[in-house]
Amino acid sequence: MQKHRAGEVCNIPFRNERHFCANGLWYFEARGGVQKGPYKSKEEMEGELLMFIREQNMSNQAIQAS
């Protein structure tokens, strides 16, 4: 069952996994269909995904502060 994210008050949008493995290499997909990768392992991809999310959050905070 999908749950609301912080700040969501409307219907829950469809969400799918944004990571995948193709030909033994791992990728993740950002908004707009941008694919990041390839990574040699799921663990490496997950680490890069966490860094990507942190960078996006920092950019959003900088935009909101200005």
In short:
With 66 residues, this protein is of the alpha+beta class. The chain has one helix at 42-65; strands at residues 19-22, 25-29, 35-39.
Plain-language structure description:
- By secondary structure, this protein is an alpha+beta fold.
- Helix content is 36%, strand content 21%.
- The protein has one helix and three strands.
- It has one helix at 42-65, and strands at residues 19-22, 25-29, 35-39.
- It has a three-stranded antiparallel sheet with strand order 1-2-3, with helices on one face.
- The radius of gyration is 14 Å and the shape is elongated.
- The termini are far apart.
Measured as a percent range, the helix fraction is: 25-40%
What's the alpha carbon Rg, rounded to whole Å?
Answer: 14 Å
Structural class: alpha+beta
Q: Tell me about the largest β-sheet.
A: 3 strands, antiparallel
* Number of separate strands: 3
Percent strand: 15-25%
Strand order of the largest sheet: 1-2-3
Q: How many separate helices?
A: 1
Question: Tell me, what's the shape?
Answer: elongated
- Run of helices and strands: EEEH
Unreliable runs: none
Distance between the termini: 37 Å
Average pLDDT figure: 82
